[in-house]
Design a protein that fits this description.
- This protein is an alpha/beta fold.
- The strands form 3 sheets. It has a 6-stranded mixed sheet with strand order 9-10-11-12-14-13, sandwiched between helices.
- A hairpin with a 2-residue loop joins strand 13 and strand 14.
- The longest helix has 21 residues.
- It starts with 14 loop residues before the first strand and ends in a 5-residue tail after the last helix.
Amino acid sequence: MYSRKQLFSGSERESLFLWGARQTGKSTLLKTLFPDALWFDLLISSDYKRLITKPDLLRETVLANLNTTPVIVDEIQRIPDLLNEVHWLISNYGVRFILSGSSSRKIIRSGANLLGGRALRYELYPLVSAEIPDFDLIRAINNGLLPRHYDAVNAQRMISAYIGNYLRDEIVAEARLRNSGTFARFLEAAAFTNGEMVNYTNIASDCGVSVPTVKEYFQIMEDTLIGRYLPSFQKRPKRRVITAPKFYLFDVGIANSLLGRGRIEPGTELFGKAFEHFIYQEIYAHSRYSENEYPICYWRTASQLEVDFVLGDHEVAIEVKATEQATDRHLRGLKAFAEEYTVKKAILISNDPLPRFVDNILILPWKIFLERLWSGEII
């Protein structure tokens, strides 16, 4: 059992949505935090059939159990009409609901009731290092950080099943795509874009579809929480900067499998790419779990100077290198960024054995960086 960092800070007695990709651990977290809740699980066939046929059964059941709170509806996106009943119960009886699901796409596209601001929004992401006792970086990079995958002896088979059953089948069905084969090819092409700038034209050519179709597929990945854009930092640039966004899949293990990377070992180019992806996952989750939900961008100039992650309003600049000994050439991007913007902290994350301070840049071993990140010392 992992002690998760998502504790719904600030929600108190408010109703809330909890979104997250499949197998991030939403149900486990809610059962741990709210063991006595009244629970409706829409993945259970009997619950689903009863409520999709007669949504007002939710209201009738809740009214008979008003002393049992909160009321949890798991996989709410499967029956968007239930939100009308939820809205009525919140407005008239002050019932606290927790509505969890793997995607709000179906609800938004159906025009269903989004509760008019009566429910706060939270997300649950794959595991982070601070949630895992005796955290193993090599295991995390190879298995990914979905709880079942991280723990698995043979994670690759489980990841392949996840990609086939969920990413290729369920998401195609939810998005009502007519050509599942095209979306499968897109997933593989999008994986090659992982951590890189998005070129819609190239991906469209690879998949044999139009650019608008590729953009729609990326939107589906965002809506279903299996990928997200990393925007470029463009505030008052002196140098000419790249404006295209980057794109990251939500879990490093999923990216590895789609790319057919095999076993990733330290010291290889593949390790460097996966290591950067892992650090991004940690920073993104920290931003969303903390009360200070700071923006994250990347910075790159036309002359190829780059900083991997810019946090907040250029408060912290971070470069990620898997090297065991950072040198001056690894610091070029951070130095250039610091010449252009006032930076509170410039940090190079590496595999160096000990912290170092070079030209106002702090070189931190990854483990120390993560400890400081989750203790609130970075931003």
